[in-house]
Amino acid sequence: MSQPPEPPRFVTLPEIRRAARERLPREVWNFGDGGAETETTLRRNRRHLDRLAIQQNILVDVRTIDLRTSLLGVPLAWPVAVAPMGGLVLFHPEGDVEMARGAGKADTLQWLSGATGWPVEEVARAGMAPQMFQLYHHGDRGWVGDLLARVEASGYLAVALTVDVQLYGRRERDILARWSPRKAMEIAPNPRGPNPEYQARLTWDDVEWLLKTTKLPVGLKGIMTVRDARRAVDMGVRLIWVSNHGGRQLDQTQSTIDALPPIVDAVGDRADVVVDGGFARGTDVVKGLARGAKVVAVGRPALWGLAADGAAGVARAFEILREEVRTTMGLAGRTRIADLTRDLIFRVD
Ligand SMILES: Cc1cc2nc3c(=O)[nH]c(=O)nc-3n(C[C@H](O)[C@H](O)[C@H](O)COP(=O)(O)O)c2cc1C
Predict the structure, then answer these.
(1) Residue 186: which H helix or E strand, with range?
(2) Contact, 319 vs 106, CB < 8 A?
(3) Is 92 exposed, middle or buried (0-12, 13-18, 19+ CB in 10 A)?
(4) DSSP string, 139-165
(5) For an engineered disulfide with 307, which of 39, 86, 91, 283 has Cβ 3.0 to 4.6 Å away?
(6) Which tens digits make up the pLDDT trace of 49-70?
(7) Which of 307, 163, 314 is nearest to 224 (CA)?
(8) What are the boundaries of each domain within the chain?
(9) Is the CATH number of domain 14-347 3.90.230.10?
(10) CA of 244 to the centre of ligand 1 (A)
(11) How far apart are the two ends of the chain, measured CA to CA in Å?
(12) pTM to 2 decimals?
């Protein structure tokens, strides 16, 4: 006799967020949730998403809504990715491996953080959905070259160099608590603290070198201007990731949802564009796609899932988000990702 299915433990994203907050030590919650200095960038990402309205379109047959898309030619079940995040071991004892399991269950592209404490091979083995790798230049070229060879051999499908951590942002919640994620992260199986020296001296020469060194398509994460996006695609960069690091780096900068459209126009079909920063609802995802992103990456909501219930929590968070995307598209009268065009969105205040 088959049992009736268990009701899901969580039914909304805010419920998952609350559960994570209740479970985590205060310092860890603040490390994940917080931003730099006055947290204006953090709030602005959110506020500028909220000032966009979605057009309500009716009397379209929306029985079938197709969420499939691709990134860098890799087919994806839907246009959302887990953003790369370091320090996951603070949120769950199995950190990145557990995140890979959760992303796999939800058929969601996972970007593994270059600040991971786990061997890239082990995270690759745990993943069932496509995986891509985020690179930090934490060592000399020899060190990065060795790491890239392992990343390629383990089946990651692209590499994105994060370029907005020249210096570490002043995260005042952590500073005030006299708390640093570094020390706490030493419990990971393969502790490796960032070497700030290499990040601070990163320039376009290193991008040139990276393009020559890896066989994988290269992206840059942390692009916020048309000028930098143009320069990158001119060099052969194939993925432009519009990000201000979730408000954790430069305070008082532009929101990503507003930086996005001119960058999309400038790169045209020469690169795929990813966006992140405050996207935490299906409506947010639809806005990012309508403004031209190929994929929306999601950071903190994945953390909430991980902290609330490990891989099951991650999978549940993404299932709910996916259901929200589907509902939003249907109510907006659009049935395919390609139909999410800029005219679907307008500024209201
Ligand atoms: C706890 C935490 C750790 C992060 N670690 C990294 C990292 O290792 N590499 C990176 O490129 N971005 C990192 N980020 C930034 C995310 O990739 C992403 O840009 C940002 O979180 C998006 O905003 P959201 O959290 O509002 O979705 C981190 C973000 C958080 C919240």
Answers:
(1) none
(2) yes
(3) buried
(4) S-HHHHHHHHHHHHHTT---EEEE-S-
(5) 91
(6) 999 999 999 999 999 999 999 9
(7) 163
(8) 14-347
(9) no
(10) 9
(11) 56
(12) 0.97
